[in-house]
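Researcher: Structure prediction, please.
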Amino acid sequence: MAEKEAIFAAGCFWSIEDTFRKMPGVKDAISGYTGGTTINPTYQQVCTGTTGHAEAVRVVFDDEKIDYGTLLDAFFEMHDPTQVNRQGPDIGTQYRSGVFFKDEAQREAAQSAKEAVAAHRGAVATEISQACEFYPAEDYHQRYFEKRGFSH
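Model: Predicted structure follows.
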């Protein structure tokens, strides 16, 4: 098994964590914060929109069972990447669309996927950035839907 990581931001992390977690080949999906400047941010801090962080999900996957391209396809399907700094009723930079790449191969794949989506949907707001520190969210955010009996 070749275990890899990917980090995606697509609005509120609860839904995307649940969706990624259910994909065959995904070993884990962790809700958290990334892309900002505040060290060890709390949910309350991130909600202010002043930390620079986005609500994000770190996906741990077996790349012999699921490839990064499949994760990218799912990411672009599970949210509206044309919205700037929002997803539905959630508004602010913390809800922006983003791919935080771990290496050059992920960057290239993300850029290609973004261009393919843009060819069909118009301007895509998804940022593609080098992965930086990922801070897991508080325990009550992990497996949020599962703990409450919701599911996608």
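Model: The first strand starts at residue 3 and ends at 10.
Researcher: Thanks, that helps.
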